[in-house]
Specification:
It is a single chain. The chain contains 6 helices and 7 strands, in the order ααβββααββααββ. By secondary structure, it is of the alpha+beta class. The longest helix is centred in the first third of the chain and has 50 residues. The strands form 2 sheets. Strands 1, 4, 5, 6 and 7 form a 5-stranded antiparallel sheet that branches. The protein has a two-stranded antiparallel sheet with strand order 2-3. It has one domain. Helices cover 46% and strands 19% of the residues.
Length: 180
């Protein structure tokens, strides 16, 4: 009788099972990597939108901005500016509302975002010195800075309520034209 060399059915089935397990593990790894990359891409978009809003605010008249945020104690809410109009009259008094709608309620890649800009009063308030009478040589006079800078917090979130994503917050300063 002649003996034929080759793989048995059990060996073939065992190799197919091993290859299937390895391919499932690799598929799970790449799926996880894809979702992580997509999440980072969304965060990057939101950070860039926040920076864009901060840049827009820096290009506005500083006295109007200071009057709006510091004196008026207002905040810009993206939900107040939808469908090419802003519902609050104080927005129209200080800003070009047509442009403000585009800045506070942008649409990127078919996803709507809502941007809120609020004044950070706690950063502008004077802090008590650690020891009265002893001022450090590196101490910064906050009263001088306050007249040239307005600290703001820009928060970006997806406009749809059920998105479940955490908002992105960027803090920055709006500076007076005199020191730019």
């Amino acid at each position: 009788m002649r003996r034929e060399d080759g793989f048995t059915l059990i060996e073939v089935l065992a190799s197919i099972v091993i290859l299937s397990i390895v391919s499932l593990v690799l598929t799970a790894y790449f799926t996880n990597a894809l979702s992580y990359t997509k999440s980072n891409q969304n965060k990057t978009i939101m950070v860039n939108l926040a920076r864009n809003a901060l840049f827009y605010m820096e290009k506005q008249d500083f006295d109007q901005i200071k009057d709006f945020f510091v004196t008026g104690k207002h905040a810009l809410k993206g939900d107040d500016c939808k469908l090419n109009s802003c519902v609050k009259p104080e927005y129209a008094a200080h800003f070009n509302t047509g442009t403000l709608v585009s800045v506070l309620h942008p649409n990127v890649n078919g996803i709507e975002y809502s941007i809120d800009i609020e004044y950070q009063q706690e950063l502008a308030e004077p802090r008590p010195s650690p020891s009265p009478g002893a001022a450090s040589p590196n101490a910064i006079d906050r009263s001088v800075i306050r007249q040239y800078l307005v600290p703001v917090r820009v928060m970006v979130r997806q406009a749809e309520n059920g998105s479940g994503r955490a908002p992105v917050v960027v803090e920055g300063y709006i500076s007076d034209e005199e020191i730019r």
